[in-house]
Specification:
heterodimer; A: about 300 residues; alpha/beta; Nucleotidyltransferase, domain 5; 2 domains; 6-stranded mixed beta sheet; 13 helices; about 15% strand; B: about 130 residues; mainly beta; Lipocalin; 5-stranded mixed beta sheet; 9 strands; about 15% helix; globular; EC 3.1.26.4 (chain A); metal-binding (chain A); RNase_HII/HIII (chain A); RNaseH-like_sf (chain A)
Chain lengths: ~300, ~130
């Protein structure tokens, strides 16, 4: 699998695609959607679609595709090669969401949660297939969240397409298994061949599984923790594992949109806490005789006579 | 009465000229940071607009020059006197003529506080200039 388009800039989201088989443009098609790398605190999350003519469902099944989680890495690689060889009737497309994309979106001023991010990636891929002229009739989706709502959302978004959202769809429908294999292979390659944007010298690549509960992953996170910058962009800062470690081992960082409660937060933001009205000391303020012009206060410019 | 502050001008020649970054957050730390290891290499530039992330938050940045005729300096006091009366000696540890100004998620604009503040020296010149005619 060629990941060079993603590797050229692994701080953003990237789409990788196979050629679209001619048969998919002329015949009714089915399409499967699955993801890989949702849980890990390290590396990208990959959304994958795989599609083929409905008439070729049996042929796809005969490739012995199965849920990627039940396969070894070598078996997945092997099956991906088989899928790639079946390019006369099988097409695929992937959306690689970099860990930096995940962090910055989830921690955005207006929060963009992982579910919304996932749904949008899936919708974007289905739309891509439609835009390529794939004659979509059936879509099968694996889900971790509530299936009914998601199914309704997708059905509304793609009228004329029969959408089936099912937990464990990756073991029920071969076209979803195929999508899960493409996604997982891409995720494995991306993690293995990760090029750090940061200048960290020789990086220890013994990350473990990337899952927060893996001791190897945890010790890697501790090893590469920087007290100022936190982590390299390979880490999803929005994961509680990463946040908890930073809270205890890194310098505190405050943003203007932080939700801070209490007197300390208010004092830091130079607001007056409610509690201060109950204390005896009056808040210190500027002398009433001299009022600075708005021009200066707006620019935070002030006279300084000492350091 | 407090003592006076002396800037060691001789230190100016030995001052370094680092690339400075002004971040839109407060870091509870006063000291060194691995800027060249963790930050600078991750900065992406596209059509004059810079982007990077810090602690998982997206930043958008722009190069800002010091106002014409001004030089930026970073002053460093090696030893702070124990009383207010004593004189203080500070040295110039860095000199800069421009810096990168970073905004949280939105691209910097001329309406941002720091951009507007840079206009003041020019305006000050104008209002303090002799009135002609």
């Amino acid at each position: 699998m060629d990941l060079s388009a993603f590797e050229a800039d692994n701080s953003v989201s990237c789409r990788l695609t196979s050629p679209v088989p001619d048969a998919c443009r002329t015949e009714d098609c089915c399409l499967g959607i699955d993801e890989a790398g949702r849980g890990p605190v390290l590396g990208p999350m990959v959304y994958g679609i795989c599609f083929c003519p409905v008439s070729k469902k049996e042929e796809l099944k005969n490739l012995n595709v199965a849920d990627s989680k039940t396969l070894t890495e070598a078996e997945r690689e092997n099956l991906f090669l088989k899928l790639d060889k079946a390019k006369s009737f099988v097409g695929w497309a992937l959306q690689v969401l970099s860990p930096n994309t995940i962090s910055t979106n989830m921690l955005q001023r207006v929060k963009y949660n992982l579910n919304a991010l996932s749904h949008d990636a899936a919708i974007g891929l289905v739309q891509y297939a439609l835009d390529c002229g794939v004659q979509l009739k059936e879509v099968f989706v694996d889900t971790v969240g509530p299936a009914e709502k998601y199914e309704e959302k997708l059905s509304k978004r793609f009228p004329g397409v029969k959408v089936t959202v099912r937990p464990k769809a990756d073991s029920l429908f071969p076209v979803v298994s195929a999508a899960s294999i493409c996604a997982k292979v891409a995720r494995d390659h991306a993690v293995k061949g990760w090029t750090f944007a940061e200048d960290l010298g020789e990086v220890d690549t013994d990350y473990g599984s990337g899952y927060p509960n893996d001791p190897k992953t945890k010790s890697w996170l501790l090893k590469y923790l920087d007290p100022v910058f936190g982590y390299p962009q390979f880490v999803r800062f929005s994961w509680s594992t990463a946040q908890t470690l930073l809270d205890s081992k890194a310098f505190a960082v405050h943003w203007d949109d932080d939700e801070e409660d209490g007197e300390k937060g208010a004092a830091r933001q130079k607001n007056t806490s409610m509690l201060s009205y109950f204390s005896h000391s009056k808040p210190k303020g500027h002398s009433p005789t001299h009022k600075t012009h708005r021009f200066f206060t707006e620019r935070r410019l002030q006279n300084v006579d000492t350091f | 009465m407090s003592g006076c502050v002396t800037v060691q001008l001789s230190s100016l020649n030995r001052a370094d000229t680092p690339q400075l970054h002004l971040l839109p957050c407060e870091i509870e730390h006063d000291g060194s940071a691995e800027v060249s290891g963790f930050f600078t290499p991750a900065v992406k530039e596209h059509k004059g607009e810079k982007s990077v992330s810090f602690r998982g938050r997206g930043l958008r940045g722009q190069e800002v020059s010091c106002p014409h005729g001004y030089t930026g300096v970073v002053l460093n006091e090696l030893q702070r006197p124990s009383s207010d009366e004593e004189d203080r000696i500070v040295k110039v540890s860095s000199v800069f003529h421009n810096f990168t100004y970073w905004n949280l998620e939105t691209p910097p604009t001329s309406d941002d506080r720091i951009m507007m503040a840079m206009v003041w020296p020019k305006l000050a010149d104008v209002i303090h200039a002799p009135v002609e005619g």
